[in-house]
Design a protein that fits this description.
By secondary structure, this protein is an alpha+beta fold. It has 14 helices and 18 strands. The longest helix is centred in the middle third of the chain and has 49 residues. The radius of gyration is 45 Å and the shape is rod-shaped.
Length: about 475
């Protein structure tokens, strides 16, 4: 145990050291007769002032002392020792001797220093790791956090110790949810993975984390805790979302190319073929005046048709090339009022009933002209394809869902056979009812403008049972 003893007589000034004490100080057992001065000579020079100060204070107060210090043996070896001394009093209360122990704690100190260094190294490694690491006990108090975790809150790691998760997370429901997760891990002893944990840091940035929580025992105790490692996957998710947008854009452009190819081969080819045919006939000799007039009327009609198609294509390309208008706060209720006022005569004539509810969401930062066009085309479509003898009923509502604004247009009109024509609903120049005039531009423009604003549109419809368009931004 490397534990020695000694006794010093005040009357003689002689100290008797035990064999183990002599061994600790590097002396032979025969050198067991020592003095106070000889003991002082062994004290390490760097500790001398401290040791003498402690012993003098004890001497003045007539009390014992206990302290750690270093000794320098004759062979130059440095030892770490713990010394403890007590005063022996005579029957009449006078101090007559000093006795005590000396404990060689060099090995323990070296182990302690190694552990401290190991903890320092581990702490440095933890702080260098970019992942956020934390340890919490069952009550939700932080036992450890690294710099990466503390930086999310704009604080130092020390600011977290012994503070509860409820203190650190301002939203009570979120804190309670996290605490419940931690307790499940501690109680069950099973690892828990949270694939996407949404967190708003101290700068207001919304970040996504992949978090793993494992059961943990706090060192030096039997207290159960939870160890968590959170990896920031915000950039990864943003990159995935960006890739998704790029793929969707490529797919859409491919569809657009198919659409334009169809238009060129059909809607442009027909008037061009007519013009070429008329030109050939016009070059024939001996045409009558009335034939020339008829040819010119046909030529004029074909040119107008060709011009209409080119204008339509130009308008579509302008929308697809990008938004140049300024975004502003647009009120759905105001847009609807303006449209209903502009077609008031049609509303009255066809006895159209328009019901709306924008209480959930009435405003959105967007392009006003696009929203107006979307509303107008869907309302006009419902009126145009009304069921004979049945007044059109159009319901328009809004909703706020997570980070999305949703618009729903629902009517009681003719409807569309989606099994037969669902893939062509939003196609250019696609018409599914011949009972009303039109060239099949409305729904194509609606979808184009919705997508240009970063939204999506879905349709649900049954023949003679109405149609519902659901738009989300």
């Amino acid at each position: 145990a490397h534990l020695g003893s000694w006794e010093l007589s005040f009357s003689t000034g002689v100290a008797i050291w035990s064999e183990e004490t002599c061994k600790i100080y590097g002396l032979s057992p025969e050198d067991n007769i020592q003095s106070y001065q000889s003991w002082v000579s062994f004290i390490h020079p760097d500790d001398l002032e401290y040791v003498l100060g402690v012993t003098k204070e004890a001497e003045k107060a007539f009390r014992g002392s206990a302290f750690h210090h270093r000794i320098l043996r004759k062979d130059g070896t440095v030892k770490q020792v713990f010394s403890e001394a007590h005063i022996e009093f005579s029957d009449d209360g006078k101090p007559i001797a000093l006795y005590g122990i000396v404990h060689d704690v060099t090995d323990m100190k070296e182990v302690e220093m190694a552990l401290n260094q190991s903890e320092t190294n581990l702490g440095m490694i933890m702080d260098l790791i970019p992942q956020s690491i934390f340890v919490k006990d069952y009550s939700g108090k932080f036992v450890f956090v690294n710099k990466a975790f503390a930086s999310l809150y704009g604080l130092s790691p020390q600011a977290f110790i012994d503070r509860s998760v409820r203190e650190m997370m301002p939203v009570k429901d979120e804190a309670d949810h996290v605490l419940q997760q931690d307790r499940e891990v501690i109680s069950s002893g099973e690892t828990k993975t949270i694939p996407e944990f949404v967190f708003t840091d101290h700068s207001g940035n919304v970040r996504l984390f992949y978090t793993v929580k494992v059961p943990f025992t706090i060192p030096g105790t039997n207290e159960k805790a939870v160890l968590g490692i959170a990896m920031d996957i915000t950039e990864q998710k943003n990159a995935e979302a960006e890739r998704g947008k790029i793929i969707a854009d490529i797919v859409q452009r491919s569809k657009d190319l198919e659409q334009f190819s169809y238009i060129v081969s059909h809607n442009l080819r027909a008037p061009v073929a007519n013009i070429m045919g008329i030109a050939e006939v016009a070059m024939l000799p001996g045409l009558k005046k009335e034939d020339e007039i008829e040819l010119m009327e046909g030529l004029s009609g074909s040119v107008k048709k060709l011009d209409e198609v080119i204008l339509d294509l130009n308008y579509i390309l302008q929308i697809k090339q990008g938004i140049t208008e300024r975004r502003e706060e647009v009120k759905f209720s105001s847009i609807l009022s303006d449209i209903l006022l502009s077609i008031d005569n049609v509303i009255r004539l066809e006895k159209v009933i328009v019901e709306s509810d924008f209480s959930a969401a009435d405003e959105m930062l967007t392009i006003k002209s696009y929203i107006y066009s979307i509303f107008f085309n869907l309302i006009a479509n419902s009126i145009k394809y009304r069921r004979p003898g049945i007044p059109p009923v159009i319901e328009i509502t809004s909703a706020r869902n997570e980070e999305k604004t949703e618009l729903v247009f629902k009517d009681n009109c003719l409807g569309i056979d989606l099994q037969k024509n669902g893939h062509e609903v939003f196609g250019l120049y696609k018409r599914f009812h011949t009972s009303a005039e039109g060239k099949g531009m409305g729904l194509f423009m609606v979808k184009t403008q919705v997508q240009t604003l970063g939204g999506a549109i879905h349709i649900a419809s049954e023949v003679n049972n109405g149609t519902e368009f659901r738009i989300s931004f």
